[in-house]
Amino acid sequence: MDTEDSSMSDEGTSNVDQTAAVGAAVGSTSPCIEPRRRLFHFSYAAQEWRAEPPLHLLRDGDAFAEIQPALLQEYSYHGLILNFPEPDPATAIPGLRPTDLVVLTTRPPTRNEKIINKKYISQSGTYLERRILETVGRYFEAHSRSLIKLTSDMATKLCEPTRGEIEFFQRHGARYRRYRVPYTKRRDQSKWQVPARPNLTAAFLLSTDLPENNGILLNVFGMDGPTR
After folding, report:
1. pTM of the complete model
2. Disulfide-capable partner of 224 in 84, 106, 111, 174 (CB 3.0 to 4.6 Å)?
3. 183-199 pLDDT, tens per residue?
């Protein structure tokens, strides 16, 4: 999906009015009303930490606030999952149900994140994060700050095949640098193309089940803060 790059910072959080979510949760306790499914916001810290991560600096809270009203039509908000390292990641298993919706409004970190990205995201190693990254890996061959490449199966489903592999600038906004059709043997199609419009970027949406009945993942992200 092509969008205009606003070149705004993605750091910082926003205060969200939870009145609608609280009302839905309270109303669902009535025996005459079917309980709504639960909604959780899975969030990363906005910056690298050396000791304890800062609880007040979370990534892309404004993006979650933008999509939350639509989600509250079907779900009730049940809180924030802070994706911070646990003393024993193997035991950090939240009590999620198969019908729960886990919303991530940040680009998932990739392997060697610190090496290949100027703006990197630290992995926590928690159980739920590993399940999320495992799921994302079924659809994205690469998902770094500078390169997005879909898997072969997903790339063949695109209406615009040249968006199967996209490179982004890492300075002055995440504009398209170039893109091409991946996984093709035709040289004319595999050549990198430079966009005719200089201020375009991309947004991504992935909705799929998490493994081991850990709910449903909704991953919505732009490449550099809010996009329009």
Report:
1. 0.75
2. 174
3. 998 888 889 999 988 88
